[in-house]
Amino acid sequence: MNLAQLNQDYGLAGQVKILEGTGGWPYLEVANTQATALISLYGGQVLAFKPRNASRDLLFVSDNAYYQVGKAIKGGTPICWPWFGPDPQGLGRPNHGFARNRLWEIKRTEALPSGATQVVLGFGDAEDTRELWPYAFALEIEITVGNTLALALVSRNLSDRPFDITQALHTYFTVGDITQTTVLGLDGTTYIDKVDGGTVKPQSGPLAIAAEVDRIYQNVPAELVIEDKALNRQIRITSTGNQTAVVWNPWLDVSAKSGDLTDDAYQHFVCVETTNAADDVVTVPAQGEFRLAVTYAIAA
């Protein structure tokens, strides 16, 4: 991609600059009066977000993250689409679909009256996607950088038949110390425990993490909160369009075996994912669309 042309078409004076980043891909550097952010066109994901009044970044990115074609970037806000988890049809297709492993396009950038900046990225079906998933579609991610970080994943069905999707905004949040971190708002829900063979269990009280956690929570409320005592902050997660949420931390053994995580990475992040997962399957009608949205706010 021609960076000069991208800056001419989509750069915003004082707010958005397109530059070459790690891996040689274009990145959008956003800086306004409210916050700064870094957005990768590869994967269509946010890699950094920091409000002007925050002491630490909202997002975690692994020091060992891969920046290679065909590999997902470990951190930020990866997008799982059009399926979450293993190939639902068992055809050997990639885990979590193909959206996080491809180069997206800039659709538009806009300076909003509120002082925030909106960036819209997207891509549509092509020969390589139709080999994996035989539908005509347009997928967009709306990224709004302001005092909060807002994401909206919009799936448009351009075909003459409905299709089913599962999906996730698989966000990695920076925490000071995982042993001093809890997730609030899940009390009274049930979850599918993927570490324990998919057993369904009840959640009682706040979720504290002291071992590997990989859970699909069902019938979740619209707001969840990460209580990060080590950094003396809360991260408020407000979502629409989902009935499920995933909480994941790999803990020591998985971190040590993962090439794109350092051995101690698990101590410094938790994933609280806004999802349509498990039985929370979305049917997008022919010529219709579906919107999965979330807003992240940092509070002391």
TrEMBL record:
Keywords: Isomerase. InterPro entries: Aldose_1/G6P_1-epimerase (IPR008183), G6P_1-epimerase (IPR025532), Gal_mutarotase_sf_dom (IPR011013), GH-type_carb-bd (IPR014718). GO terms for cellular component: cytoplasm. One of its GO terms (biological process) is carbohydrate metabolic process. Its EC number is 5.1.3.15. The keyword Isomerase applies. SUPFAM superfamilies: Galactose mutarotase-like. It comes from the Bacteria. It is an enzyme of class 5 (isomerase). It catalyses: alpha-D-glucose 6-phosphate = beta-D-glucose 6-phosphate. Pfam families: Aldose_epim (PF01263). The keyword Mitochondrion does not apply. The active site is at H170, E273. One of its GO terms (molecular function) is carbohydrate binding. Belongs to the glucose-6-phosphate 1-epimerase family. PANTHER family: APOSPORY-ASSOCIATED PROTEIN C-RELATED, GLUCOSE-6-PHOSPHATE 1-EPIMERASE. This is Putative glucose-6-phosphate 1-epimerase. It comes from Leptolyngbya iicbica LK.
